[in-house]
Design goal:
alpha+beta; Nucleotidyltransferase, domain 5
Length: about 325
């Protein structure tokens, strides 16, 4: 298994490195008319801090560039512009957000490209059909859905408005950020849990210490709590992420010119198309993770970007 990326090991302020995804939609009641309730749809953009796994959720009214930029602006206004943003570029962003017009390693939509360059952000897109590369934020979406589905089951559909949904999203955010990152300890010297909310709000019971100045100077107390969080984060939490339970043996990289079989969940295996590798992109550890493939079908040549998990090597060059 590959080493953790640098942005997963950073002890910079929360939401310096972010992974995001869009999920939804939900039908809400916008207004009441004589013919009944007028309904509309809402989606949500979930921002996940890649280091402390804190989340932030913003509602959007439409799946277009304007609504998405407004969600980014609200997030930046609260937490500041991040240095790095990661997201999917397949069924989650490119496929679901058709109006966003985002392609691999680039932002073709002028307003999106201009806004990101003004904020000094770097955006890295995963290749299509590689949701496993965004497991950090995909897991948070699964947790959010479980909590939100339970809350919505307690509310009548006719009473679900934009304000109610926005309130529910805030409560979901608070619940997720209050979850413990490590197993609960029985040690009496650790009276509080290591949670994302601890570093976000600093509202926890002050642990025992000998420095009397911490009681009278608030900024020293806050700094002390932050230092305790990052110390425990390194000692207790990082060790749980570094275990390698499989893929211990090194395999040869896929090279340009290899003939591969392209997985297609919509077709039977004997109908999967053959493709030629025209570009193999290695990661920082030297292992190839992304491929550019050329597929010829019925005289038409098409180019696809896929992760190595979506291909089967038939013949090496």
């Amino acid at each position: 298994m590959a080493d953790l990326p640098r942005d997963r090991l950073s002890t910079e302020p929360p939401f310096t490195n972010v992974g995001l995804d869009v999920f939804g939609p939900w039908n809400i009641s916008t207004c009441r008319t004589r013919g009944g309730d007028a309904n509309s749809k809402r989606w949500a953009v979930l921002f996940t801090c890649l280091s402390v796994h804190a989340v932030h959720i913003e509602l959007i009214e439409a799946m277009n560039t304007s609504s998405f930029i407004n969600a980014l602006r609200r997030f930046f206004a609260i937490h500041g512009p991040p240095k790095l943003i990661r997201s999917d570029c397949g069924t989650n962003i490119k496929g679901a957000c058709k109006e966003l017009q985002i392609l691999l390693e680039d932002t073709n939509e002028p307003s999106m490209q201009r806004y990101l360059s003004e904020e000094g952000c770097m955006w890295i897109f995963n290749p299509p059909h590689s949701s496993h590369m965004g497991g950090v934020w995909e897991r948070m979406i699964g947790v959010s859905r479980q909590i939100l589905d339970f809350m919505l089951s307690q509310i009548s559909p006719s009473c679900l408005t934009h304000e109610v949904l926005s309130t529910l999203m805030a409560e979901v955010t608070a619940i997720i950020n209050a979850r413990p990152l490590t197993p609960i300890s029985t040690d009496g010297e650790l009276p509080f849990l290591l949670t994302p909310a601890m570093i976000l709000t600093k509202k926890i019971c002050t642990p025992p210490h000998d420095n009397a100045d911490l009681h009278c100077q608030q900024w020293k107390r806050v700094q002390h709590l932050a230092n305790i969080f990052w110390t425990r984060w390194k000692r207790e939490y990082l060790s749980t992420l570094e275990s390698r339970s499989k893929w211990q043996d090194s395999q040869p990289n896929i090279k340009e010119g290899d003939l591969v079989l392209l997985r297609d969940n919509q077709s039977k295996r004997n109908q999967w198309p053959m493709a030629l590798v025209i570009k193999a992109t290695p990661d920082t550890d030297g292992k190839v993770g992304k491929l550019e493939l050329k597929v010829t079908k019925s005289g038409t040549v098409k180019t696809f970007f896929r992760p190595i998990t979506e291909v089967v090597v038939l013949m090496s060059s």
